[in-house]
Design brief:
Blueprint lengths: L1 E9 L2 E7 L3 E5 L6 H21 L5 E2 L5 E4 L21 E4 L7 E4 L2 E9 L2 E13 L2 E6 L1 E2 L6 E2 L4 H4 L3 E4 L9 E2 L3 H9 L7 H9 L2 E3 L5 H6 L8 E3 L3 H14 L2 E2 L3 E3 L4 E3 L1 E3 L5 E3 L5 H15 L4 E5 L7 H17 L3 E6 L2 H8 L3 E4 L5 E2 L5 H10 L1 H10 L1 E5 L2 H14 L3 H6 L3 E3 L5 H12 L6 E6 L12 E5 L12 H9 L6 H29 L10 H17 L11 H4 L9 H15 L7
Parallel strand pairs: 3-23, 3-24, 13-22, 22-23, 26-27, 26-28, 28-29
Antiparallel strand pairs: 1-2, 1-8, 4-12, 5-10, 6-7, 8-9, 9-10, 11-12, 14-19, 15-16, 17-20, 18-19, 20-21, 24-25
């Protein structure tokens, strides 16, 4: 089992080191280096194999050249040019620049894996030197204490480690031809899982066994296999795999069949009602689950590198599959290192497995005190990761509020516009400050330098002042009051229509309908409740805008096409000179709080 990995100068990772265990989940935002870490482990495995094929496990003299690895050997890391393995494509540096004694030095990729095998710990470090666009050299790391300098041996235990990389399911081909195990590995590494799912099932199912005869009844029940005089004998692993699929999806897998005349593999499954369907008819969730299980059974006693194993799986299924994978891996003596975005997988893994956060420098998420673990468990680990990544959090009532803020910021060309595009936001759903406070201080338990801003509808009670959570409220009743203006509503009536003759006539009709609707709803509010629709004290959405748009679209003979969730469209129609100065104040506050944020960078 691998227990630790250190990676230097490989693709996105300058210098990263983290712990490994029986089951490891790598989490973090897109393009943060999770897949890069999996590929580094795959590269280390290739290096160990190539070195042992050529040099064995003896200590090497410093001058002994490395073994050559061609980029085409990188099954799990398909690249068109070898320099793409190096961070920022930098394969060489110049030492002594400006001294007159400049010297070109190679920049090396270093990957050091530690492990435990049969109760013995070991360490195996490899370095990789760029040669040309097609190849590079691999050799063990130097043993700096030796004189003359020599290189550390590659432990025999390291050579016994098997590593297999599996990307997410990429669909399923309608036809699949028989492939050798090596070709299956190449296609999997290239992400072409659609071409090999039946082959993996074929491997798990077992070897072909000749039969003396084939009865007409057998031929009739399996017409697509009628030419064959051989049948499969299902392995225990296949029966177990089939049992899992039946429990999870309620269908029974039928044996994969090899059509020798066409070199083709065919496979079907049976619905509970007895209907037999080709495997291509199944959903992506079944395909993804079958891929994971077949790959697991086909690669026992292996370090399994799984890239987004939760892909195509709905929420409840994600938990089931993760639990199943970890249980099977332990029974088979395998180790799982998975990269995931799923909060379900994260919350499942954190209690019993190792979770590595790729936020800033990769680091393990562990319990730095029972209150921290409780806070993260109660609130969800995805909340903590967003806090680590941004360093600050915005609290608003709902997604509509955020969309309106973004629309105003865009019109004003305010610096907050860019901040609001990529933000850690938490919707409190109600106008209760305590909801925001409870969430903020829960996350603050885990990230002590977190700052935040909570923006509420107008409140009668006094908000708290000072501290890392800034609390502010609108002076008008709610944010929609700032877009509830007659010119904006008339603009909405015309905004999607063309300038041609028909469009102009329709725009006039719609504007007239809007004027009538405004007049009628305003008169009703005045008569029934003595309310002015343009007042700061009216609850603009419930008391004016909602009945207004019901009335307006009824006049047009249309269903209501603008619900509260879409009122940000109106915000985009407010002209710059019509935007209240308080909007600018609130956007300025967002920029100030974001400027105090300390996202994790080390």
């Amino acid at each position: 089992m691998l227990t630790n990995i250190r990676i230097r100068n490989f693709k996105k990772l300058e210098d990263a080191s983290f712990e490994l265990g029986k089951s490891v989940v790598l989490i973090g935002p897109n393009n943060s280096g999770k897949t890069t870490a999996l590929q580094a482990l795959a590269l280390w495995d290739i290096g160990v194999r190539r070195w042992n094929e050529k040099r064995g496990s003896k200590v090497s003299p410093e001058e002994r050249p490395g073994v050559t690895i061609n980029r085409r050997d990188l099954i799990a890391i398909p690249i068109p040019d070898a320099n793409l393995l190096w961070r920022d494509l930098h394969v060489r540096s110049i030492a002594g620049r400006g001294t007159g004694q400049q010297k070109t030095q190679n920049i090396r990729i270093d990957i050091v894996a530690d492990g435990v095998t049969d109760g013995r710990s070991w360490s195996c470090g490899l370095e990789f030197d760029y040669a040309n666009e097609e190849s590079f050299y691999c050799r063990p790391l130097r043993m700096s204490a030796d004189d003359p300098p020599r290189r550390m041996p590659v432990p025999t235990e390291a050579a016994r480690v098997k590593v297999a990389f599996l990307p997410p399911m990429s669909g399923l081909a309608d036809r699949e031809f028989i492939k050798q195990a090596g070709e299956v590995g190449v296609l999997v590494g290239q992400g072409q899982t659609a071409q090999v799912l039946r082959n993996l099932c074929y491997q798990v199912y077992g070897e072909l066994k000749a039969t003396e005869t084939e009865t007409p009844q057998l031929r009739e029940s399996r017409p697509e296999y009628g030419e064959s005089r051989r049948e499969f004998v299902g392995s225990p692993e296949w029966k177990e795999l089939n049992s899992h699929i039946k429990r999870l999806f309620g269908v029974a897998l039928l044996p994969p069949k090899y059509i020798k005349e066409r070199s083709e593999l065919v496979m079907a499954y049976e619905e509970p009602g007895g209907t037999k369907l080709d495997l291509s008819s199944a959903g992506r969730g079944l395909h993804q689950t079958l891929l994971l299980l077949a790959y697991l059974y086909a690669n026992p006693q292996t370090v399994l590198l799984l890239d987004e194993p939760d892909a195509h799986l709905e929420v409840l299924r994600q938990r089931q599959i993760y639990q199943l994978l970890t249980e099977l891996a332990e029974r088979q003596g395998s180790q799982i290192v998975a990269a995931s975005h799923s909060e379900i997988v994260l919350n499942e893994a954190v209690e019993r497995d190792i979770v590595i956060a790729f936020v800033g420098k990769p680091h393990r998420v562990n319990d730095r005190g029972s209150q921290v673990l409780k806070a993260l468990t109660d609130l969800g680990f995805e909340q903590y990761y967003q806090a680590e990544q941004t360093g600050w959090v915005l609290y608003v009532e709902g997604a509509t509020d955020l969309a309106i803020l973004k629309a105003f910021a865009t019109t004003l060309q305010h610096p907050a516009a860019q901040l609001l595009d990529r933000i850690f936001v938490h919707y409190v759903s109600t106008n209760l400050p305590q909801r925001a406070r409870d969430h903020f201080w829960g996350i603050h338990e885990a990230k002590e330098d977190l700052v935040g801003l909570a923006l509420f509808d107008r409140l009668d009670k006094k908000l708290q002042e000072g501290g890392p959570l800034v609390e502010i409220a609108w002076r008008r009743r709610e944010i929609e009051n700032y877009l509830c203006q007659e010119p904006v509503l008339l603009r909405y009536a015309r905004h999607e229509l063309t300038d041609d003759l028909f469009g102009a006539a329709e725009a006039d009709r719609r504007e007239a309908a809007m004027r009538e609707a405004i007049s009628e709803v305003a008169a009703a509010l005045q008569t029934l409740r003595n309310l002015d629709p343009w007042s700061s004290d009216i609850k603009a959405t419930d008391e004016f805008l909602n009945p207004l748009f019901r009335n307006y679209f009824a006049k047009l003979g249309l269903p209501n096409l603008l619900l509260k969730s879409d009122y940000h469209v109106l915000a985009g129609l407010v002209h710059k000179e019509e935007i209240d100065a308080e909007i600018v104040e609130k956007l300025d506050a967002i920029v100030r709080v974001a400027g105090q944020a300390r996202p994790r960078i080390d």
